Amino acid sequence: MWGRYPAARRRLLMLSLSRTLNQKSWRWKSGPANERALQYKIGEQIHGFTVNQVTAVPELFLTAVKLSHESTGAKYLHVAREDSNNLFSVQFRTTPLDSTGVPHILEHTVLCGSQKYPCRDPFFKMLNRSLSTFMNAFTASDYTLYPFSTQNPKDFQNLLSVYLDAAFFPCLRQLDFWQEGWRLEHENPTDPQTPLVFKGIVFNEMKGAFTDNERLFSQHLQNKLLPDHTYAVISGGDPLSIPDLTWEQLKQFHATHYHPSNARFFTYGNFPLEQHLKQIHEEALTKFHRIEPNTAIPVQQLWDKPREHHVKCGSDSFAADPTKQTTISVSFLLTDITDTFETFTLNLLSSLLVGGPNSPFYKALLEANLGTDFSPDVGFNGCTQEAYFSVGLQGIAEKDIETVKQITARTIDEVIEKGFEEERIEALLHKIEIQMKHQSTSFGLALTSYIASCWNHEGDPVELLKIASKVTQFRQHLKENPTFLQEKVKQYFKDNPHRLTLSMSPDESYYEKQAKLEAEKLKQKVNVLSEEEKKQTYEKGLELIALQSKPQDTSCLPALKVSDIEPTIPFTELEMAFAADEIPVQYCSQPTNGMVYFRAVSSLNTLPEELKPYVPLFCSVITKMGCGALGYREQAQQMELKTGGMSVSPHIIPDDSHLDAYEQGVLFSSLCLDRNLPDMMHLWSEIFNNPHFEEEEHFRVLVKMTAQELSNGIPDSGHLYASVRASKTLTPAGELQEMFNGMDQVKLIKRIAEMSDIKPVLRKLPRIKKYLLNSDNMRCSVNATPQQISQASKEVENFLKGITRSKKERKPVRPHVIEKSPVSVPVGRERLNCSQITRKLITEPTFKPCQMKTHFLLPFPVNYVGECIRTVPYTASDYASLRILARLMTAKFLHREIREKGGAYGGGATLSQSGIFTFYSYRDPNSISTFSTFEKAAEWAQSGEFAQQDIDEAKLAVFSAVDAPIAPSDKGMNHFLNGITDEMKQRHREQLFAVSCDHLIDVANKYLAGGKSTRGLAVLGPENPHIAKDPSWVKR
Ligand SMILES: [Zn+2]
Q1: Which of 158, 166, 422, 657 is deepest in the core (most CB within 10 A)?
Q2: Burial classification of residue 1026, based on how many CB atoms lie within 10 Å of its CB (0-12 exposed, 13-18 middle, 19 or more buried)
Q3: Alpha-carbon distances, residue 599 vs 665, 782, 798, 891 (angstroms)
Q4: Burial label, 374 (beta-carbon count in 10 A; 0-12, 13-18, 19+)
């Protein structure tokens, strides 16, 4: 994988706490893990390491232990915390000076086999031999990171062993380099008459990556703002430069960069540190001596005057107005990110400048009606050695470039003059408080990405964790000097000559030109080949296929066994009550650390059909238009001051036992600190009772932003759009899915965004409100600490009593509605009475699934392919078999055929909760042949050519998803949202354990064999001569 962390960029201190190990302790305590860590003495020697520093960080409930390895100089940070989801990562500073993608190809290739684990692709194999909660690898601009997490101690040791051996002792075979990086190969490798073409996973991955215009812009921005050293090149690889990389260069890069002296180790969680140190020391570090890595990046020379650049991109195929597709931003180089307090301040300052409708740049730029949304990377960027701030617009006319520049300069002047409202600063500090308290299940991963950049440049990662002291220091500065922030704006923005204006506009023939350049590159490479070399190229192609197809012995790899999986799950205790007479409320007491989570679901059953397509738009604007006495700006301010967020989204839930039944509604979600619950519920009341729909211009801004986000998201989520489309005609819910979440929705929003008169759409919103924002068909849920539950129930009661209830029962629009109430079942010693939650489901007794094939023509050089098959619902016993089968087919067949041989970035099979079996591929150079691969996969499954070991591995992989940790805020949600009880989950679990080889062959025959089930196909991608000729395809 390549790219910066979405989590680490643009967001402010995105830290959230993980769940506690001991579910019975309602308050955070420094448990045994912290106490153990606090015992370490400075200077203490442990397995070749020396303890340098031990620091308690009470606001995050953790203790940080900093160490260094004596003989190699490797750096180590351990964060002890009462969290069972333990994480390991190793990070190398990788600072390439060309765009061949060497760090990225290396990141892929080291995972292809190592000295101790010489089998092919141990990394992917371990996905099936472990109960990991996360495994991946990332190439950033200046470092490469290998993290994994797991809750199982044995698994931790296994994975650590594989990761260490991969990073420090990889095989780096030439064939691995060809497969992962690039190679010349005949289009059809077995036919030397077909032309030679470029192939390779990273080569295709990067071609796909730059179909995302936002990514392309970000890349240019960094390259041009920091042009002196490694930031001037593309660490992931430029598809036109990748073929210049040699195998020798790859090995050389590994020798100089993947060395302990250039490494930073990080461990997190409640497992003991000594065991980690021992294993890392013995299995890796003892085999090295210290070197001088010379990977540091020199300080960027500051410019004496601002610079400007203009670049080209592909055009947005959904924009009706191609004259308004220009992006422009103005960016300022800030400060060294190792200065943690200055960085903290500038990060806050950036949020004040661009965050939310009250920020000066939102008002000045977004509301100027020039563009569709902020430019990519708006705000603070702290992933490079020197941070930068960027602001601008996308979706503007080229002639407006000057205007945007002028507005930007004027806004900076105004901020210097007027400063910020105190309330906005308070709202931001409140946000930090929430982020410190809210617990996620991936805190270790959040930490490692949070500290990676700063640590990479010798900054102090422990300093970075002391957030509370930074807040205090910040308040102090502000108290002593009320113009503190204005002065920073003057220093870093007004008086800063290191400023870049970057603009990007589409070129109709951009992809054509790229393809031509690639063809020229190919010609260069092919023309210099002698006859002998051509013959070798052909033979090596065959050799690679032979290797990829060879059955593999993976017995060298460590593995957990199916018997290591917990046979039963702990049940979550839920309480049910009625509020305001008959509205069911689910209460779940959890150690939420002083936070309350309130959710509600309201039914769509009475909504007239013609309003339905506008529901997603309604959801995305309803909390942003103003309510009661509050205008939209004041509402945003109140939400930031009092809550951690309030959002609304469409909700389509398949029934667990009938494919032709589903629930349709919208979901309201919100969170706040205990003390702010009355304020948050008051905001909900106002949104339900008195929402505003008057501000037409503001509505237009919101619509344009939504439209821009949707079309920017296609290159990343193309396979999901393909799958949603492919399942459209298979179940009654499928059509609604496509309407709400598919390409139909993308196109609708795009059309609305381009309307000259948006009023007719705006007028639909109060009509939708009438059907949705009332308590007629509602249910609620609260997750909070036990001490807070009774207070919360009062607030919920008040809220429900205060919102409208229709006087007479409204009739559902569709006649077929069934009421469904889960039966109450004994749970442990207690009897949970869950039967009060009645869900009204839509059924279509006359529904007939039918086949449909759709091609969405997009100007991308790669395809996204989806094929869906209607199977069985969640509670059917075949469901468990199909779930295991999907995993088995992915690991043992599809990964090899689609990724390794086919050169796509990814591909596989999944089974959704709605009983749709989906084959997919991602950033795929092929399309039609991928469908035949799906067919072969089904034949392979029917033949039953897999061993018990393969089935067990698929089970482990499925269980690592089934048993993924759940945060206190989300406990009980499967029951509340989907109607899936713990008993049903336990039954499903038992069915999963029971799946045998015969079951797998049986379901493969029953559902996947050609002609057996109804299926849908969809492709998103470029012109396709084969599809064009075939009348059975719908072209869109
Ligand atoms: Zn990659």
Answers
A1: 166
A2: exposed
A3: 13, 7, 15, 37
A4: buried
Alpha carbon separation from 615 to 621, 698, 756, 767 (Å, rounded): 10, 18, 21, 11
The rounded Å distance from CA 206 to ligand 1 centre is 8
The Å distance, Cα 209 to ligand 1 centre, comes to: 10
Residues 6+ apart with CB under 8 A from 456: 91, 93, 142, 143, 264
pTM, rounded to two decimals:
0.90
Q: How many angstroms does the Cα of residue 237 sit away from the middle of ligand 1?
A: 10
Number of residues in the chain? 1036
Taking phi first (over 0 means left), then psi (-120 to 50 degrees means alpha), and beta for anything else, what does residue 47 get? left
- Strand pairing category for 263-269 and 86-93: antiparallel
Q: Which helix (H) or strand (E) holds 684?
A: helix 677-689
What gap in Å lies between CA 604 and CA 18, rounded to an integer?
A: 34
pLDDT < 70 positions in the chain: 1-30, 318-321, 807-810, 814-815, 822-836
Q: In this structure, are residues 740 and 650 in contact, taking their beta carbons and an 8 Å threshold? A: yes
The amino acid occupying position 383 is C
Give the integer Cα–Cα distance in Å for 779 and 600. 6
Q: Angle, to 10 degrees, between the axis of helix 743-753 and the axis of helix 732-741?
A: 40
Query: Which residues are catalytic, by number?
Result: 107, 180
Cα separation, 362 vs 391, whole angstroms: 10
Contact 954, 999 (CB under 8 A): no
* Structural tokens at position 641: 């001051």
Cα 661 to Cα 816: distance, rounded to the nearest angstrom = 9
Q: How far is the CA of 238 from the centre of ligand 1 (A)?
A: 13
d(CA 105, CA 970): 38
Contact 641, 425 (CB under 8 A): no
Cβ atoms within 10 A of the Cβ of 1022, count? Answer: 16
pLDDT of residue 835: 47
Of 183, 156, 309, 166, the closest CA to residue 247 belongs to 183
Is 564 buried (19+), middle (13-18) or exposed (0-12) by CB count in 10 A?
A: middle
Q: 600 with 668: CB under 8 angstroms? A: yes
- What burial letters (b/e) apply to 89-104, b meaning 16+ CB within 10 Å? bbbbbbbbebbbbbbb
Residue 699: Cβ within 10 Å count: 23
Residues sharing a CB contact under 8 Å with residue 472, sequence separation 6 or more, in sequence order: none
pLDDT for 11 equals 33
Give 532's contacts (C-beta < 8 A, 6+ positions apart): none
| Closest to 579 (Cα-Cα) out of 812, 787, 802, 811 | 802
Question: Which residues of 352-408 form beta strands (DSSP E)?
Answer: 373-374, 379-381, 386-396
- Pair type for strands 138-139 and 143-150: antiparallel
